[in-house]
Amino acid sequence: MDHIGQLTPSGAPGEGPPAAPRITVREASRSFVTTGRSAVHALGPVDLSIGDDEFLCVVGPSGCGKSTLLKIIAGLLAPSAGEVAIEVSGDHRIPIAMVFQDYGIYPWKTVRANVELGLRLSGRPTADRREIVDDWLARLGLTDFADVYPGALSGGMRQRVSIARALAIDPEVLLMDEPFAALDAQLREVLQDELLAIWQARRRTVVFVTHSLEEALLLGDRVVVMSARPGRVIADIHVPFERPRSSAIRTDALFAKLRGELWTSLHSEVVAQFDAGKDRP
């Protein structure tokens, strides 16, 4: 798998998608073999081109391979077929960061130590690390919990630690797997607005998996809709709202229209995935 490589620019500047995509997924698919079962075709083939500094949201029915796709892009899973190419500048020791559904933080490290980990691995000086960590703890409402261990935190707070750790290293590519799913509705909206502000100030390529159509339209430049398993792209929708944005666009009539279009694309796939689950022995 060609996971990190240089891509050949194509196309004219300013016309359509960026000339040099940050991420290119070419006919990627993934199959799994389960105990006592034949191979399960989980994903693909998937083709995607994701631009530099683009915010791409991915929606689809549960079990369609969204998280699998994200892990393939991250290099955590090899595709059974196809490839992924990611263009990185070489300026970052850790150019890609991922926020997992299950937090992925270390229970034996404090909140501060967890957030600091990527900075430490990348060789940042101690004084710089402390300043950066303090900033992200404040942004995500964690300052008072800097010296607390994850076991004493709620699930939502643990996820905020995971988000802070990823953002602290300022990666070129940020992969987020339902990062706000464990949060209550009010905090979720606060952090959506915070993420919008962060992205506006420090534009990076983001691939964001979510089950929320509203969240996808609020955050994304594009929304990709995936089919029932094996997941493949069945719709690719441009989000027309100007930036900077805030959650106020939820009241826009066009927002409701686009949400309806997304659901129309997705509804039959959700039903198909549900029916497939019922048919299992």
From TrEMBL:
Q: Name one GO molecular function term.
A: ATP binding
* Gene3D superfamilies linked to this entry: P-loop containing nucleotide triphosphate hydrolases
Q: Where is this region: Disordered?
A: 1-21
Transmembrane stretches, by residue range? none
The UniProt keywords, alphabetically, are:
ATP-binding, Nucleotide-binding, Transport
Q: Which InterPro entries match?
A: AAA+_ATPase, ABC_transporter-like_ATP-bd, ABC_transporter-like_CS, ABC_transporter_ATP-bind, P-loop_NTPase
Domain ABC transporter: residue ranges: 25-253
- The molecule here is called Nitrate ABC transporter ATP-binding protein
Species classification: Bacteria, Bacillati, Actinomycetota, Actinomycetes, Streptosporangiales
